[in-house]
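Researcher: Quick test of sequence recovery. Tokens follow.
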């Protein structure tokens, strides 16, 4: 760990006194923790104050100098920091993360809540990567708007929800569009919902020709829309996140050149059921076009939409953070009532599809 890293002990990690002169940091609720002591009583008190003050703003060297000034042994404090880091309770904020952090008091308070989870995913600079990321959510749906709001609240710097038309009464959902939005343009109402969750977010659409870090497809049967074939050649990473009937569907997450594509999944479906393309054509059409199955944007109970949005959030952040392979690569996570737990359904690359050789590696 270099001196440019700044130790952060999240506020949620308790610093407890277990005996006179002995502290326990973390170690409740099954987490690993660290016991320190016995120290002289005033030393334990000084150490507790020092640890509680690790806010990610000061480099390690400054923290150790502060410890010495408070009468603590430099080597002991250094060992404590190492021990807390080893058990996962102490996080290190890199210079890049610090520069990307918000500066107004309110924004800092919100960041403080989100930062530990982002840094816990692994590599330095995760927070900075989120702050500079741009996500486009296609569809101000009962999944799309809560997802956009959660992405922005989780630190993603630019989140744009695109849609057409006006809000209907059934679009109202917790964390998304509200009853007061009925009749308003969907894009403006969605932007307000995102701003409520994250006032600092950049809501502007991306300039023409700019590739977002992720495009989220939230319409029920967007995956079978042939007009989306250009996403692969335009090298746009895209994630399906929707509700179809009573099933929440998150995935596949398509990373052009690295994974299978949406056409792979359709080819696999067609192998299993040759009549699938004819059904898919009807599913992607608006319900007014024929008397076939409805495919409107309003679907899914509140619980199902919320669980789907949260599952999509985890996959989107895993992709943006770049710290772990998202489960939705070459697969979909499906959620059904009553447990709403995601179950993985594989959608491997189809041997007849040229997508993996067509894009960049
Ligand atoms: Zn493919």
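Model:
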């Amino acid at each position: 760990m270099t001196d440019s890293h700044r130790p952060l002990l999240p506020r949620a990690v308790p610093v407890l006194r277990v005996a006179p002169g002995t502290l326990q940091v973390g170690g409740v609720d099954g987490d690993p923790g660290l016991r320190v002591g016995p120290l002289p009583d005033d030393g334990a008190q000084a150490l507790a104050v020092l640890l509680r003050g690790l806010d990610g703003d000061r480099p390690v060297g400054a923290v150790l100098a502060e410890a010495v000034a408070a009468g603590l042994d430099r080597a002991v404090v250094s060992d404590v920091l190492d021990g807390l880091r080893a058990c996962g309770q102490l996080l290190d904020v890199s210079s890049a993360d610090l520069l990307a952090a918000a500066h107004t008091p309110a924004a800092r308070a919100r960041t403080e809540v989100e930062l530990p989870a982002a840094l816990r995913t692994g590599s330095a600079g995760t927070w900075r990567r989120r702050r500079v990321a741009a996500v486009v959510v296609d569809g101000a749906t009962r999944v799309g708007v809560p997802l956009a709001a959660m992405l922005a609240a989780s630190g993603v710097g630019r989140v744009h929800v695109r849609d057409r038309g006006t809000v209907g009464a059934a679009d109202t959902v917790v964390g998304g569009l509200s009853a007061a939005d009925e009749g308003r343009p969907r894009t403006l109402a969605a932007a307000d919902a995102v701003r409520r969750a994250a006032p600092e977010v950049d809501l502007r659409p991306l300039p023409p020709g700019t590739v977002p870090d992720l495009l989220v497809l939230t319409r029920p049967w967007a995956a079978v829309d042939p007009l989306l074939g250009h996403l692969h050649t335009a090298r746009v990473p895209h994630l399906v996140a929707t509700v179809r009937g009573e099933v929440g569907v998150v995935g596949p997450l398509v990373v052009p050149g690295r994974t299978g594509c949406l056409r792979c999944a359709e080819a696999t479906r067609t192998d299993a059921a040759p009549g699938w393309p004819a059904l898919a054509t009807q599913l992607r059409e608006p319900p007014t076009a024929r008397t076939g199955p409805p495919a409107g944007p309003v679907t899914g109970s509140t619980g199902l939409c919320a669980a789907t949005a949260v599952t999509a959030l985890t996959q989107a952040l895993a992709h943006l953070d770049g710290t772990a392979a998202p489960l939705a690569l070459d697969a979909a996570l499906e959620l059904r009532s009553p447990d709403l737990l995601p179950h993985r359904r594989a959608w491997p690359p189809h041997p007849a599809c040229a997508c993996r050789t067509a894009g960049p590696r």
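Residues 287-296 have pLDDT under 50 and may be disordered.
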